[in-house]
Amino acid sequence: MSALDTLASERSASERVVERVPDLRGRGSARSEASTLQTAERDTGPLAGAGGGTDDGVELGRFFEHSTAVLSGFGRRRWCPRRRCSNDLSSTIRPFRTLVKTRRVTIVDWSRHRAVLFDLDGVITPTAAVHEHAWAELFAPWDFTAEDYLTYVDGKPRYDGVRSFLGARDVSLPEGSPDDPPGDDTICAMGNRKNEVFNAILVRDGVTPYPGTMRVLDHLDGLGLAQAIVSSSKNARPVLRAAGLGNRFDHVVDGVTAVDEGLAGKPDPAMFTRGAALLGVDPAETVVVEDASSGVAAGAAGGFGFVLGVDRGGNRDALAAAGADEVVDDLAETLVESAR
What is the pTM of this model? Predict the structure, then answer.
């Protein structure tokens, strides 16, 4: 067969495809395809500039003519309506499919939920660094590291943190009493000494909330979502006052609450469950925001609707492994739309 015969045969095949398009008019699937095509043409897909008509048959005709030309190897410009074609199928069809599937979304659709439970240190305020400094001073004789902080004490009640770290170093101390003076001879005494160091740093340096977190809090206020603090720290209320947020939250479930009400600490979900109950919402309707893997694990175990991890430095993989639905570096990222 000559080249001219081949060309005529392939052109005829292309025209037969186009001639079938009017038969599709009026069918739901055809209207869906045409609508998708028109949306793509308004953006910057491979068919951009191919025309803005509203007739389904005409739009589908243009689409099939364009696609058939590419599939048949006719990459010449005269075969493509107002658009250069490429013989490379991947450069034409694949971007079109990607464009159709792409939508603009945010990491968290806050409006789909009724309430948000925030951890405090490392989520609302940068006091996680103050806690880490205090723990490092307390455990200096055992070469305490940043990895030790994340693994053994971050997000846990104070005495649980002491017990966990010393156990990892095969150090055994009597439990003692919460009334023990700050010291080194019991678990409680060491925990109380850590608290003393923390408060001294807080008074000396003060604390300022994360700007990105404040933007999210304002956004949630606008949506009318209930909010509460759920923190293992017994210093949650003093920290909130130091940050100028003493009256921002109606409910605070903290280390003091846990002792008074006999609530298990994170990674047990009891404190978060209590926070949801105080707000009058079901856990499934509630977002948990945490920077500690123990807190993320608590949110995941409690059946909460969405668990958001906040990675303030090198903890992303651990947060994801603990059950975070998404992990961000800063809460402000949840207000930015992205392509998905």
Answer: 0.61
